[in-house]
Amino acid sequence: EGEEPAAAPEMRKVKKLVRKADLTVLQASQCLDAATLTELAKRERDMHTADLLVGATEVAKNSLEEYIYEARAKVEGDFAPFIEAADQKLFLANLMEAEDWLYDEGDDTTKDAYLEKLAALKALGEPAAERFREDKERPRAARELRDTIAQWADRATSQEESYSHITPEERQRIIDRIEKVQEWLDEKLDKQSLKPKWDAPIIFANEIAKQCEDLAHFAKPIMSRPKPQPKPEEAAPAPEAGSATPATADGSAAPEEEMDVD
Fold first, then answer.
1. Nearest to 71 by CA among 52, 103, 94, 54
2. What DSSP designation does 198 have?
3. DSSP state at residue 91
4. How many CB atoms lie within 10 A of CB 144?
């Protein structure tokens, strides 16, 4: 006979215990007080200002170093004719002194100290640089002024129909102004040609450009004035009452209109 199946084990039910208790909630804030926030903001601004100053100081130092190297090369090269020998020697000595200072006590100093050194060097070097620039720019400006003079002289003496309404008196005013400007330019350039290149310029390129602008402003309103429009032809007057009957093309009197007579 077969065995009877084993009975399933009996499971005991466990009753869950639930305990109730009050939960205490504490309200707190992590925001700092106003005084602390103000102090932290001030520190942040101070650090930002300090960073900016460090950057500006480094820029001033680099500017001084670059000027020393560039000025030395130029004063011994392109600028040499525009600075006297004694001034050139003094300038080179100042550049050397500034370079030695930069790599010694000036290696770590203030922004103002670098700027003061740079300004002192430029006071010696900039006049030579200016004379060099003027020597290059003056001839170009003079050519432009001469071209302007020639252009306005051609217009003032032109017999073109478009200028026929410009009066002789107005044309002469332009010619007089042109002659005055030409004399000024020739006189200044003659004096400049007698000066050594290391002397201060007699005439500057911007002065020549100003004469060019002034001449154009004087002459243009005169020569650009539009030509007056011709007056319209007057219409033929209407025949008066009682006047003679107009003739036909062959000279005979025009036929009168027939009138109905009652």
1. 94
2. T
3. H
4. 15
| Angle ∠(177,179,185) on CA atoms, nearest 5 | 105
**DSSP string for residues in 56-72:** HHHHHHHHHHHHHHHHH
* Number of H-type helices and E-type strands within the chain: 5, 0
For residues 90 and 124, the answer to whether their CB atoms sit within 8 Å is yes
For residue 133, what are the CA distances in angstroms to 63, 82, 123, 148, 161? 21, 10, 16, 23, 45
Question: Which residue from 135, 172, 35, 123 is spatially nearest to 115, judged by alpha carbons?
Answer: 123
Alpha helices in 16-158 (DSSP H): 34-75, 85-102, 111-156
Query: 145: burial class by Cβ within 10 Å (0-12, 13-18, 19+)?
Result: buried
Q: Is 110 helix (H, G, I), strand (E, B) or coil?
A: coil
DSSP state of 199: S
Q: Which residue has the tokens 């400049």?
A: 192
pLDDT tens per residue, the chain (262 residues)?
455 556 666 656 656 666 676 667 666 666 777 777 677 677 767 776 666 657 889 999 999 999 999 999 999 999 999 999 999 999 999 999 999 999 988 888 999 999 999 999 999 999 999 999 999 999 999 999 999 999 999 999 999 999 999 999 999 999 999 999 999 999 999 999 999 999 999 999 999 999 999 999 999 999 999 988 877 775 556 666 555 555 554 555 555 544 454 4
What would the two tokens of residue 190 be? 């003659």
Q: Cα–Cα distance between 138 and 258 in angstroms, integer?
A: 91
